[in-house]
Automatic annotation (TrEMBL):
It is a multi-pass membrane protein. Pfam families: FUSC_2. Residues 398-521 form the Integral membrane bound transporter domain. It comes from the Bacteria. It is found in: Cell membrane. InterPro entries: Memb_transporter_dom. This is FUSC family protein. Belongs to the YccS/YhfK family.
Length: 714
């Protein structure tokens, strides 16, 4: 894609306004937090202190609207602590230009590296830099700086207190996420009725897994409905796909058996939809009787046979588990057993007594996790490190440039740059365009209102609160809306301190343009392109698929030695690798650089081959043997049976070929699957090859590997 086209496409994306569901009560609560802090500070402390307090309440409230599964009060308090610290340190260094520029460089670098722990941390860290740039322009002494920092922290405390005192739909986001996952599996079941090879989107299940991770305190309070259903949804996925597939399941495309399969899929979708609806609303599950009647073995006897019959029985068992779980009370929670004191020591709790939940580290426990994430990103090829270096240079440069420009509010250049820059090209250029257009609209509207009404401090405060309320309400509509509301908020807020509209409006328009241009130019000069890394992303996905397939075939070869997490952990790696590829391919598609070995056609064909590889493995996962099952080989010794099992030989050939294939993919060399073909041919010619499901899956998997090799032919 050329630069001209890339800029045009990113500009359109930045100016797009999306329709989204509104959360008025959350917006009102956040705006009330700003109104309360601004009103009290204005009444007791004066305009300058009110502005400082408003920045803390605004930024802390903004942090609570970020996509995160942390408790909202924790986000508000964390943002307030960072804002207070950055403001106080900035006040100490601002009298010396060199010291303040050095501080900006260090703080901006740290804010850029914060993206290593997640986008929420990155956004909040960027807010601390932005607030520092504005707050240090308010005149005060060192003692006054402590007061300003304390008031900014108070703004965050107020937001956190309002969240605790006036909770809006507790656990609501987690309910919606789990319901979306169940509804996604239900939709998958319905689509399989008409298309047995329909694609499955794992993203809702991945979101549900992220949402299911809780701290020990949250585990004691979590509603009963949020426990267990996600695991049921995960177990439905391979069973539904295997039942519908005509090759692995063995059901003809038409006839009584196919009609029975369609009826089972429709009934399973109905049960999952009913469960999703109940979880979303927090009410008991109501399942239609006709769906339950279908999910029973017919009185006339089973219609299906072979692998399809086994899969249908598993599906019926899963729906029975869902119906049984639906009979549980909605809001009953289970306590978290703690270690018991015995004499002078402690007795460990039996693992079987512990509630099963995904553990999320507490805030103190998050520190070693964050340090490990930072160490992983300390390499020159890391987009996070390059983003941090870019910020460390651009923010002080923009601050210095703002001081040289004639307007009084030159800090707006650096503020725009720090809010626009992101680790990837598309977001940076989209936000740059949206920031300029949104700021232009915001300052024009706010400046017109100020010019026509000449509001006093209290009216300006009320208008600022209305602006921030609109921003909270329309946070998900697009960055252009956020920029417009933020610009109006700052205009009205500085109006409290007596700034003239004739000064603020024209200055901020062209200073925003300067900051956005510098930010986008810095990315063009020091880019972080995703296109050259596409082969690495494909290799990671191929490796993950290989581990997943190897784990499943090993489970057939060594059923008694299978670890409960072996297949599950491999599947999670596949999902993470596929998500990384999807994100990388999306970013690369918007970049103005030429491909380096993987053009669009090759990338599309390779993606289809890897998706097929994962789908075939998923189909086979539905037929995993019981851990007590015997080997398919007739050997007397289990160890000898494992060595001579065709599934074991194929799994070993697959695992040994993956390392060389991934390295060849990274280097752009042809892929060699000869060992896999030899193992498959030996399996097909074996006299005791009495495992049709595994053999069919191995054949389909080998075909997918050949398609991948053909797609990547140089």
């Amino acid at each position: 894609m050329s630069w001209r086209r890339a800029l045009r496409e990113t500009a359109r994306s930045g100016l797009r306004v999306e329709r989204t569901s509104l959360t008025p009560f959350l917006a009102i609560r956040g705006a009330c937090g700003v109104a309360l802090t601004v009103g009290l500070a204005l009444y007791f402390g004066g305009p300058t202190l009110a502005v400082s307090c408003a920045f803390g309440a605004f930024a802390s409230g903004t942090a609570t609207f970020q996509r995160s599964w942390r408790p909202r009060p924790v986000l508000a308090l964390g943002a307030a602590a960072g804002l207070a610290l950055s403001t106080f340190v900035g006040y100490l260094c601002v009298p010396w230009d060199a010291a303040f520029l050095a501080l900006l460089a260090v703080w901006a670098f740290a804010a850029g590296m914060a993206w290593a722990t997640g986008p929420t941390s990155g956004v909040v860290a960027s807010l601390t830099v932005a607030v520092m740039l504005v707050a240090v322009t308010l005149p005060t002494s060192v003692l006054g700086a402590l007061g300003h920092a304390a008031l900014i922290a108070v703004g965050g405390l107020v937001q956190a207190a309002l969240i605790e005192l006036f909770p809006v739909r507790p656990w609501g986001e987690r309910r919606d996420t789990l319901a979306d996952a169940l509804a996604g599996v239900a939709d998958y079941a319905r689509r399989l009725r008409h298309d047995p090879r329909a694609a499955f989107d794992p993203e809702p299940l991945m979101e549900a897994r992220d949402a299911a991770a809780v701290t020990r305190r949250e585990a004691r309070r979590r509603p009963r409905q949020l426990q267990g259903y996600r695991a049921l949804a995960e177990r439905f996925r391979p069973v539904l796909a295997s039942l519908a597939d005509p090759v692995v399941g063995g059901v003809p495309s038409e006839g009584p058996e196919r009609d029975r399969v369609r009826a089972l899929l429709a009934a399973a979708g109905t049960v999952l939809d009913a469960t999703a609806r109940a979880i979303r609303r927090g009410e008991p599950v109501r399942i239609p009787e006709d769906a339950l009647a279908v999910l029973q073995v017919p009185e006339s006897g089973p219609v299906l046979s072979g692998p399809a019959r086994k899969t249908a029985i598993r599906l019926i068992a899963l729906t029975d588990d869902t119906v049984e779980a639906a009979q549980e009370p909605v809001e009953v929670t289970r306590s978290f057993p703690m270690p018991r004191a015995v004499g002078s020591g402690w007795q460990r709790v039996d693992p079987s007594e512990r509630p099963l939940h995904l553990h999320r580290p507490s805030v103190p426990g998050l520190l070693p996790v964050a340090l490990r994430a930072l160490r992983r990103e300390l390499r020159w090829s890391s987009p996070i490190l390059r983003h941090a270096l870019r910020l460390a240079v651009v923010v002080p440069l923009c601050r210095f440039l703002g001081e040289l420009l004639p307007p009084e509010h030159g800090y707006w250049v650096a503020l725009t740059a720090v809010m626009v820059l992101r680790p990837d090209f598309s977001q940076t250029f989209e936000r740059g365009v949206a920031r300029f257009v949104g700021t232009l609209a915001g300052v024009v509207i706010a400046g017109s209102v100020t010019a026509l009404t000449s509001p006093g401090p209290y009216v300006s405060a009320a208008l600022a609160v209305c602006s921030i309320g609109m921003m909270y309400l329309l946070m998900s509509a697009g960055y252009i809306i956020v920029s417009a509301c933020t610009a109006a908020y700052v205009i009205f807020l500085l109006g409290i301190a007596g700034s003239e509209w004739a000064q603020t409006v024209p200055e901020r328009v062209w200073l925003t343009a300067v900051g956005g241009l510098v930010a986008m130019l810095s990315y063009a000069l020091f880019p972080t392109w995703e296109t050259p890394r596409l082969r690495d992303r494909l290799a990671d996905w191929l490796n993950a698929n290989g581990r997943y397939a190897t784990a499943v075939f090993d489970a057939f070869a060594y059923p008694e030695n299978r670890h409960p997490r072996q297949v599950r952990d491999a599947l999670l790696d596949v999902r993470a690798s596929r998500t990384a590829w999807d994100q990388a391919a999306g970013r690369a598609g918007a970049e103005p650089v030429r491909h380096r070995g993987v053009n669009r056609r090759a990338a599309r064909d390779a993606q289809l081959a890897l998706v097929t590889m994962g789908r075939v493995t998923m189909l086979l996962e539905a037929h995993l043997p019981d851990p007590k099952a015997k080997h398919s080989s007739s050997a007397a010794e289990p160890s000898l049976a494992a060595k001579t099992s065709p599934a074991a030989v194929y799994a070993r050939a697959l695992a040994e070929s993956m390392g060389a294939a991934s390295e060849a993919l990274r280097a752009g060399a042809p892929l060699d699957w000869s060992r896999v073909h030899d193992a498959l041919e030996a399996w097909q010619s074996a006299e005791d090859a009495l495992s049709p499901v595994e053999l069919r899956a191995a054949d389909l998997l080998t075909d997918a590997l050949d398609e991948l090799a053909e797609a990547l032919v140089p």
